[in-house]
Inverse folding.
């Protein structure tokens, strides 16, 4: 609740992503993917405080976190969902396998976004409060912001279709902008492919 209020509409469902989770007696590959998801969730939680300006912005920590998510996204993610691994206690919907193209597109999208977050880490926050503002980059600041906003505006409709992000464009955005897109990417996949248990 508190999380959603502070972050605003940009990260709908974030509270549910970082909420406490239980593995529900899962074993094998199901347990493995739940743990992988939990690892990503821990990263999102840790970076959230920074993105909210609660803790000091640390570009290295953002890069590390982005790399952790990247390692669990894309084919690393889809590889944990072999055919026939649905059903109790898994919360994966049958759509994962009947709509595999979209599922893997979302996993790939998360990979691109996390790559982008790593590249954008030095840009700091949109507000400019925590960033390591570098003189040389200041001149381009306004233009970058403008394009970041345009991208943010276009984000929602792109989500769920495995949008066509490109890491170079993301690299020019403020880190919290890319972070919000990551949170939306998690939510987009959960909305479509994960059973709502709570
Ligand atoms: C491509 C789809 C997809 C993406 C992207 C995705 N998830 Fe998931 N996530 C799932 C599915 C499906 C499950 C249910 C897995 C199961 O129960 O077998 C799940 C489960 C979870 C769980 C619950 C794990 C448990 O112990 O039951 C958490 C927490 C989670 N995801 C966090 C995240 C975070 C954080 C991100 C983004 C950084 C993310 N997920 C991105 C599909 C996705």
């Amino acid at each position: 609740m508190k999380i959603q209020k502070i972050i605003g509409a940009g990260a709908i469902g974030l509270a549910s992503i970082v909420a406490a989770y239980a593995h529900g007696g899962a074993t094998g590959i199901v347990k493995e993917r739940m743990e992988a998801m939990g690892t990503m969730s821990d990263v999102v939680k840790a970076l959230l405080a920074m993105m909210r300006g609660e803790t000091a912005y640390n570009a290295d920590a953002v890069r590390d976190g982005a790399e952790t998510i990247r390692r669990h996204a894309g084919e690393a993610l889809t590889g944990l969902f072999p055919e026939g691994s649905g059903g109790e206690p898994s919360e994966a919907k049958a759509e994962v396998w009947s709509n595999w193209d979209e599922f893997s597109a979302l996993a790939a999208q998360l990979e691109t976004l996390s790559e982008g977050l790593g590249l954008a880490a030095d840009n700091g926050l949109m507000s400019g409060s925590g960033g390591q503002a570098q003189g040389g980059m200041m001149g381009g600041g306004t233009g970058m912001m403008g394009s970041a906003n345009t991208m943010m505006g276009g984000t929602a409709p792109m989500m769920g279709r495995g949008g066509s992000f490109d890491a170079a464009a993301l690299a020019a955005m403020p880190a919290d902008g890319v972070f919000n897109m990551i949170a939306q990417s998690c939510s987009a996949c959960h909305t479509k492919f994960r059973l709502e248990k709570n």
Q: What stands out?
A: Residues 1-10, 130-162 have pLDDT under 50 and may be disordered. The CA atoms of residues 40 and 69 lie 6 Å apart. The two ends are 14 Å apart (CA to CA). Residues 17, 21, 23, 30, 33-34, 37-38, 40-41, 44, 69, 77, 90-92, 96, 103, 106-107, 110, 182, 185-186, 189-190, 193-194 surround heme C (CB under 6 Å).
